[in-house]
Design a protein that fits this description.
It is a single chain. About 35% of the residues lie in helices and about 15% in strands. By secondary structure, it is of the alpha/beta class. The protein folds into 2 domains: about 170 residues, Phosphoglycerate kinase, N-terminal domain (Rossmann fold), CATH 3.40.50; about 190 residues, Phosphoglycerate kinase, N-terminal domain (Rossmann fold, 3-Layer(aba) Sandwich), CATH 3.40.50.1260. The strands form 4 sheets. It has a 6-stranded parallel β-sheet with strand order 5-6-4-1-7-8, with helices on both faces. Strands 11-10-9-15-16-17 form a 6-stranded parallel β-sheet, with helices on both faces. The two termini are about 15 Å apart. It binds adenosine-5'-diphosphate and magnesium ion. The site of adenosine-5'-diphosphate has 19 residues, from strand 14 and helix 13.
């Protein structure tokens, strides 16, 4: 990776003391009635903030929150400022503007080791358009720039890409650097590489399926997307979620794995029910009858996938193996999670629901790396360049 890091910024002559550093973090946490729910993303951003503050930087912190269409009270970052302050153990000023005179005045008032959080970047439509005037206005708030928002690194937005040419120095934060380091292992893996892909839809993850089919030694598929693959092989899928318009794509993925001499594994037994309900009677079957839906991989499949995990030297997992939210259909995901946690392989897990499943089981500590960016991690392992990273490349301090 040819990008500057926090080490370069802190180690440069004069370090960051007295300098205003714009930190683009991913503080996109769930909010309910103005209260922060799961604060994993805030915690993941603290390392970079602490190092900059310890170095005497004046931190101008920015993030998006949700998908606002213009300013909205519900998506204000004000409650996030309070939680950041609590976790950092120091005051965090909040500016109800993102750019402009008020933000500039607040940034100018910062002392060494102080933090200012700006209002939601996406209140201004120019953020997602990577608009130059908005990027300049953000850059006007600081001297240097640190991007630590891995979760949005796959988007070219004003705060993730456009801002870079307008700041004096730019670097990747510790979280971004760690994400890239771990995910790079999946791109250039110690083999065998096992990729476990699950979740709801083939259409959400088609590009990654296509990229991983010839790359992974073993591609093990679970979740609802498995049924589109089984349909592609002409097997009965009953009332399971099948994306009829993706059956052709599934066939191509199967062919790509075959051509490359890789193994693509599909479930050979299933936990089925007639309704997607917690109390619906369920059965374990090798073949799905009419009127029944596959809602989890069965125990034989789970055991097979677990054995692959034990053999692998690198594991990448995205997407639960079944409807893990309901106890009746979480055993496949649980078995795979336990196998990945127990494996000696370098393991990386991404995806909001996959992480929720791992955290629910308390296995987080035993996974090599939990990626904070589902979409970004999928794009990176596909071999795509991340605009938030390319923007930083080739820059010298
Ligand atoms: P991630 O957030 O980890 O990327 P996805 O969002 O792609 O994962 O998919 C997770 C969703 O897929 C979960 O809500 C889960 O209930 C659903 N799902 C998994 N298996 C099935 C299945 N067999 N039938 C219906 N839904 C499923
Ligand atoms: Mg999801």
């Amino acid at each position: 990776m040819s990008v500057q890091t926090l080490d370069d910024l802190l180690g440069a002559s004069g370090g960051v003391r007295g300098r205003r550093v714009f930190v683009r973090a991913d503080l996109n946490v769930p909010l309910k009635a103005g209260v922060v729910g799961d604060d994993t993303r805030i915690r993941a951003s603290l390392g970079t903030l602490r190092r900059l503050l310890a170095g005497g930087a004046r931190v101008v912190l920015a993030s998006h929150l949700g998908r606002p269409k213009g300013p909205s009270a519900e998506l204000s970052l004000a409650p996030v400022a309070a939680r950041v302050s609590e976790l950092l153990g120091r005051r965090v000023a909040f500016c109800p503007q993102t750019i402009g005179a008020e933000a500039e005045a607040a940034a100018a008032k910062l002392g060494d080791g102080e933090v200012l959080l700006l209002e939601n970047l996406r209140f201004d439509p120019r953020e997602e358009k990577n608009d130059v005037s908005f990027a300049r206005a953000l850059a006007a708030l600081a001297d240097d720039y640190v991007n630590d928002a891995f979760g949005t690194a796959h988007r070219a937005h004003a705060s993730t890409a456009g801002i870079v040419p307008f700041v004096k120095r730019a670097a990747a934060g510790d979280l971004l650097r760690e994400e890239l380091r771990h995910l790079q292992v999946v791109r250039e893996p110690a083999r065998p590489l096992l990729c476990l892909l699950g979740g709801a839809k083939v259409s959400d993850k088609l590009a990654v399926l296509e990229a991983l089919a010839p790359h992974a030694d073993v591609l093990a598929i679970g979740g609802a997307m498995a049924y589109t693959f089984l349909r592609a092989l002409g097997q009965p899928t009953g009332a399971s979620l099948v994306e009829a318009d993706r059956v052709g794509d599934a066939k191509r993925v199967i062919a790509a794995a075959e051509k490359a001499g890789r193994r693509l594994l599909l479930p050979t037994d299933h936990v089925i029910a007639q309704k997607l309900e917690a109390a619906a009677p369920s059965r374990i079957v090798p073949t799905i009858p009419d009127g029944w839906m596959g809602l989890d991989i069965g125990p034989v499949t789970a055991k097979r996938y677990a054995e692959e995990a034990a053999r692998a030297r690198t594991i990448f997992w995205n997407g639960p193996m079944g409807v893990f939210e309901l106890d009746a259909f979480c055993k496949g995901t649980e078995a795979v999670a336990r196998a990945v946690a127990a494996a000696s392989a370098h393991s990386v897990v991404g995806g909001g629901d996959s992480l929720a499943a791992i955290n629910k089981l308390g296995l987080g500590e035993r996974i090599g790396h939990l990626s904070t960016g589902g979409g970004a991690s999928l794009e990176f392992v596909q071999g795509l360049a991340l605009p938030g990273v390319t923007a930083l490349e080739g820059l010298t301090p």
